[in-house]
Amino acid sequence: MKLCRFEESGTIRLGKIVSEAVIDLSAVPGVGLSMQRLVAALPQLRGALESVRGPRFALDAVRLLAPIDDPQKYLAIGMNYKAHADEAAAAGIPVPKSQLWFNKQVSCINGPYEAIELPKVSEKIDYEAELAFVIGTRCKHVPVADARRVIAGYLVANDVTARDWQFRSPTYTLGKSFDTHGPIGPWITTDDEIADPHALTMRLMVNGDERQRTSTGDMIYNIYDQIAYLSTVMTLEPGDLISTGTPSGVGIASNRFLADGDRVRVEIEHLGFIENVARAER
Length: 282
Fold this sequence. Notes:
The protein is of the alpha+beta class. It has helices at 35-40, 42-51, 82-90, 163-166, 173-176, 223-233, 251-254; strands at residues 2-8, 11-18, 21-24, 56-58, 63-65, 74-78, 100-103, 109-110, 116-118, 125-126, 129-135, 151-158, 161-162, 182-190, 201-206, 209-215, 241-243, 263-268, 272-280. The N and C termini lie far apart (39 Å).
């Protein structure tokens, strides 16, 4: 299934994507308006969600929103593709010897087609195409071999980064968390629809110019390694959003940062695309 949040006639609902339509899931008992809660109850609700015959809207007649807007955590891993780690090293950034994690504050979450704000206080707003996934089961100390069982689904992300703010703090958090700098979507594709999340082509374009392209199989630490590592430290909760790293080709490597009016598109095979226009803060 492809699960989404959408707005139609001023009302926000949860839905599922079928071909070029969105089916309203409001008629399913227990769905409500929270994707976090739906994800937590997905095993129990799956049959009803698959068979629901609710109101149907043309996809181009609704506004797709961030598919999850209420995760407890938004975690992201840095320098998780070798070519990106190499370009970071060339820019003087030390390559980590273990998984490098940071927070993106959940207030940065943005819709799949909404504007990215270029804040007045930064001159170095960068893009990072990433595969993200959503935790579906509360878990701790997850073995690598069992890690896939806790994944609800996958989505496209752009880890927008204010580079000048990122390097002011060793935690990266401030530079990763400006408002609107977490566009995600366009929906959550449930795990059962993806044969291998490490065999997907991912690419990013700025104004049609391809800047990044890779296979998700080029990760240094794969998704299951990430879950095992994180769950050693903290309990992962349903709805937690985890972003798996970006490949080479980011703006800082060539000193090409986003400018007012730039259109950034991130595509991942089988998951769809997000597209956001950069707009200067007024």
